C-alpha cells in the first residue's frame, strides 16, 4: 500500500493543545528537533486527545536511529529485539521513542514466516512509510510540537469522527503479519466505542487460530492490557464470540465447553465485572488475581478429578493448580511471581473453608487473605458453592477489625524490574 500525501491540520483546526501533553514528552520532542532530527507525537495519545480522553502514555516517532536517540538522553535505554526502541525515563513516566519504520522487503532486517508473520522488523524509513505500517488509521496521526500541526496520512480524522476502527491495508494480511492486532482491534473497539469495519471483524473469526503463533511472553502483557482496560467483561464476551479465547486459553475453553456448568462462565464474568468496577474506582488490581480467575475452571475441574481418584483436599488442589498452569504456559508465559500468588489464592479456598475463630485470627493477616476472600465471594456469586462462608468471613472481619497500621505479612520477594507495560497495582488503560 502506497502512502498518500498527508492532510495537514493546523493548530486552529484541531483541539490538541500542549497543556494536555506530558511536559516530559515535549522535552524529548524539543531535544530531538534541536539536534536536527524530526520528531512527532504519534498513535494513541493523539487519538485519545482528539476524543477528549486523557492518554495513558505518550509515544514519539522520529527519523533519529535508536542509537542516536540513546546518545541524546542519558536517562534512556535501548530495548526490544523484534522492534528496537528507546525508552526515555523520567521517574515513573516512560516516553517511548521509535524510529520511523520502512518496508524494504528484500532486507535481512525484516523477516517473515511462511504464514506471513513478521518476526523481525528493523528497517527504517520515512514518516510516510511509517504511517502505513501502523495498525489502525486512528493510531496513525502525527503531531508536531514545532508547528503544532497534525499530519494525517490515512484519512484517520474521518474514521475517528465516524467512530470506525479500520486497519491500514488488507485486514487479513495485517493480522497475519501480527496476530496481536486482532486483540488490539477488540480492545480499542470496546475502549473507544468504535465499530471494527466489517471485513476486519470477519477476519478475526477466520484467523483467531493464528494467536498460537505469537510468543507466549508477549501475550502475557497483551492479555493484561485487555483485562485492565476497564472493559474486561465486554472484551471477554468478544473473545468468546470470535474464537480468540479458545486460541489463547485452549484448556480452559475446553473445560467450559465440556462441563455444561454455567457456573464456570458465570465465575469468570463475575471476576471481570468486579475488575472493571475496581478500575473505575481506581482500586488496585493484580494480574495474579486475573489469571487465578481465568484458569479457575480448569483448576476446579481437575481438583474434583483428583479427589475422585482418592487424593485428599489439599494435595488434590495443589496438583490441579500445577496441571492447569502447565497446560496454559505454552500459550501465555505467566511470570513466576504471579504463579506463586495464583497458587496462594487457590489454596486460600481450602483455608477459608475452615471457619473457626481461632484459625481466623491467623488467616486474616496472611498476605493473600484479601484476594482469597474476594475470590471466595465470586465463587459464591457464581453459585459454584453454597452461600454462607463468605458471609461468615465478612462478619468476622467486621467484628474483628485489624489495627489501622496493619500490613499483611509479606512474602520476601525482590522488587521486579521496571517495565513499561507492567503496571502492577493501579492501572488505567
Ligand atoms: P494505548 O496506549 O491506549 O493502549 P496506543 O495506540 O498508544 O494505545 P501502544 O501499544 O502504546 O498503543 O502503541 C503505540 C502506537 O504504535 C500505536 O498507536 C500504533 O500506531 C503502533 N502500534 C502498536 N502496536 C502495533 C502493532 N502490533 N502493529 C502496528 N502498529 C502498532
Ligand atoms: Mg500508547
Describe the structure.
This protein has 429 residues and is an alpha+beta fold. It folds into two domains: 7-213, Beta Polymerase, domain 2; 226-399, cca-adding enzyme, domain 2. The chain contains 19 helices and twelve strands. It has helices at residues 23-34, 44-50, 66-72, 127-132, 156-161, 171-177, 180-192, 198-207, 216-227, 232-242, 244-248, 250-259, 262-280, 287-308, 313-328, 336-351, 357-363, 369-381, 389-399, and strands spanning 7-9, 39-42, 59-62, 76-79, 85-90, 93-99, 110-112, 118-121, 141-143, 150-152, 164-165, 195-196. The strands form three sheets. The chain has an eight-stranded mixed beta sheet with strand order 1-10-9-2-3-6-5-4. It has a two-stranded antiparallel sheet with strand order 7-8. The protein has a two-stranded parallel sheet with strand order 11-12. Helix 7 runs parallel beside helix 9 and helix 7 packs across helix 10. The longest helix has 22 residues, at 287-308. Mean pLDDT is 89; it is low at 411-419 and 421-429. The structure holds adenosine-5'-triphosphate and magnesium ion. Magnesium ion binds at residues 43-44, 57, 59.
Task: List its salient traits.
429 residues, alpha+beta, Beta Polymerase, domain 2, cca-adding enzyme, domain 2, eight-stranded mixed beta sheet, globular, disordered C terminus, binds adenosine-5'-triphosphate, binds magnesium ion
Amino acid at each position: 500500500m502506497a502512502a498518500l500525501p498527508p492532510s495537514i491540520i493546523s493548530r486552529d483546526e484541531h483541539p490538541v493543545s500542549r497543556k494536555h501533553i506530558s511536559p516530559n514528552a515535549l522535552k524529548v520532542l524539543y531535544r530531538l528537533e534541536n539536534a536536527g532530527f524530526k520528531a512527532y507525537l504519534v498513535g494513541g495519545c493523539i487519538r485519545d486527545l482528539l476524543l477528549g480522553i486523557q492518554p495513558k502514555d505518550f509515544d514519539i516517532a522520529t527519523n533519529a536511529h535508536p542509537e542516536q536517540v540513546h546518545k541524546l538522553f542519558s536517562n534512556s535505554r535501548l530495548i526490544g529485539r523484534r522492534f528496537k526502541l528507546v525508552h526515555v525515563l523520567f521517574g515513573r513516566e516512560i516516553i517511548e521513542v521509535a524510529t520511523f519504520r520502512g518496508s524494504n522487503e528484500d532486507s535481512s532486517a525484516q523477516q517473515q514466516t511462511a504464514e506471513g508473520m513478521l518476526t523481525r522488523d528493523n528497517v527504517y524509513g520515512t514518516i510516510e512509510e511509517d504511517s502505513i505500517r501502523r495498525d489502525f488509521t486512528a493510531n496513525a496521526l502525527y503531531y508536531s510540537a514545532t508547528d503544532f500541526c497534525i499530519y494525517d496520512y490515512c484519512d484517520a480524522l474521518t474514521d475517528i469522527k465516524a467512530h470506525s476502527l479500520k486497519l491500514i491495508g488488507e485486514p487479513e494480511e495485517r493480522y497475519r503479519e501480527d496476530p496481536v492486532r486482532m486483540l488490539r482491534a477488540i480492545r480499542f473497539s470496546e475502549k473507544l466505542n468504535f465499530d471494527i469495519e466489517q471485513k476486519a471483524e470477519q477476519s478475526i473469526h477466520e484467523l483467531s487460530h493464528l494467536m498460537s503463533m505469537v510468543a507466549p511472553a508477549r501475550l502475557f502483557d497483551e492479555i493484561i492490557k485487555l483485562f485492565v482496560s476497564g472493559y474486561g467483561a465486554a472484551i471477554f464476551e468478544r473473545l468468546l464470540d470470535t474464537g480468540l479465547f479458545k486460541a489463547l486459553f485452549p484448556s480452559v475453553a475446553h473445560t467450559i465447553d465440556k462441563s455444561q456448568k454455567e457456573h464456570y462462565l458465570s465465575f469468570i464474568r463475575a471476576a471481570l465485572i468486579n475488575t472493571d468496577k475496581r478500575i473505575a474506582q481506581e482500586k488496585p488490581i493484580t494480574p495474579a488475581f486475573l489469571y487465578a480467575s481465568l484458569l479457575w475452571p480448569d483448576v476446579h475441574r481437575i481438583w474434583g478429578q483428583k479427589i475422585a481418584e482418592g487424593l485428599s483436599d489439599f494435595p488434590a488442589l495443589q496438583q490441579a493448580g500445577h496441571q492447569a498452569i502447565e497446560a496454559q504456559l505454552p500459550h501465555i508465559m505467566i511470570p513466576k511471581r504471579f504463579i506463586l500468588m495464583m497458587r496462594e489464592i487457590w489454596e486460600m479456598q481450602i483455608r477459608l473453608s475452615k471457619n473457626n475463630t481461632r484459625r481466623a485470627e491467623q488467616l486474616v493477616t496472611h498476605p493473600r487473605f484479601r484476594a482469597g476472600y474476594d475470590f471466595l465471594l465470586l465463587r459464591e456469586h457464581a453459585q459454584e458453592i453454597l452461600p454462607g462462608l463468605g458471609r461468615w468471613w465478612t462478619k468476622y472481619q467486621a467484628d474483628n477489625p485489624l489495627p489501622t497500621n496493619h500490613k499483611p505479612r509479606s512474602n520476601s520477594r525482590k522488587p521486579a524490574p521496571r517495565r513499561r507495560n507492567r503496571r502492577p497495582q493501579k492501572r488505567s488503560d
